Amino acid sequence: MKLVTYNIQYSKGQDGKFSLIRIAEALQDADIACIQEVERFWQRSGYIDQPQALSSFLPNFFTIFGTALDVNSSIKNKYGQIFNRRRQFGNMILSKYPIISSRNFPLPKEGDGPIHSIQRALLEAVIDIPDIGPTRIYNTHLSHRDSKSRFPQLNHMISTINRAPFEKGAWSGEHTDEGWTEGNKPPMPSQFILMGDMNCNIDSEEYKEIITTENFYDTWKNKDKNIDRATNLSGDSIDHCYVSHELIGKVKNTYIDKMPKGSDHYPLWIEI
């Protein structure tokens, strides 16, 4: 099975042009993809509903979109009719296996000072993966500002992930009205995979916090310090994948594909 995490920079490529086709081509070989900086109805990207467009370009994937930033972008025509739409920015999960359930969690936001700050989120999907079983997939994008902004997000994210098995599935328990218990009861498995743009390098205090947290294992197994782990054009190693103890022994490979030019980041691939 192949997983990938890719910050697509709202489809703005290294040539300055916008192309969701390039993004779709970079993702097509994945079984599960976590992508960040996906947007809806922004002027800069041509007011395109990017989650819908990507779903149409990749019709063999089940998809969910988790909004982080959400503001009004509705328009009114000359007759006074309102066309409701939201200018949104967030994370998306694509899977060749059905997404049993999903939840989206806002992360703490730092708003002090003049530096631009936006709402961030953690997107959860429960997927029954062949030969692995039900697994929680998490996709996130932490603040670009500084450690002061990221640490509260990091702690909230870890707490949310650790708490999930005790909360049970998206719905749980019994109800006398069968309308509330339609379909199979969704699981909330213990094993998980966390991917995304953490905006922290491998020499950062945030990275140290994650890898020293019980049950969070970096999938990068190559210990050769000469290996280039840069996942963006600036040479930063800020895109990561972590798995729980049930899965770390099943990880076969982690690598960065430097060929796609559809973003200022590169896809980080994980083989299990």
CATH architecture: 4-Layer Sandwich
- How much β-strand is present in the residues? 25-35%
Task: Give a short account of the largest sheet.
Answer: 6 strands, mixed
Within the largest sheet, what's the order of strands?
3-6-2-1-14-13
Q: What would you call the shape? A: globular
Give the distance, in angstroms, between the N- and C-terminal Cα atoms: 5 Å
Instruction: Please give the domain count.
Output: 1
Q: What is the tally of helical segments? A: 5
Give the total of beta strands. 14
CATH superfamily assignment?
Endonuclease/exonuclease/phosphatase
CATH topology: Deoxyribonuclease I, Chain A
Q: Classify the secondary structure makeup into a structural class.
A: alpha+beta
Q: What is the CA-atom radius of gyration, in angstroms?
A: 19 Å
Nearest-integer average pLDDT? 96
Low-confidence stretches: none
CATH class: Alpha Beta
> What is the helical fraction, as a range of percent?
10-25%
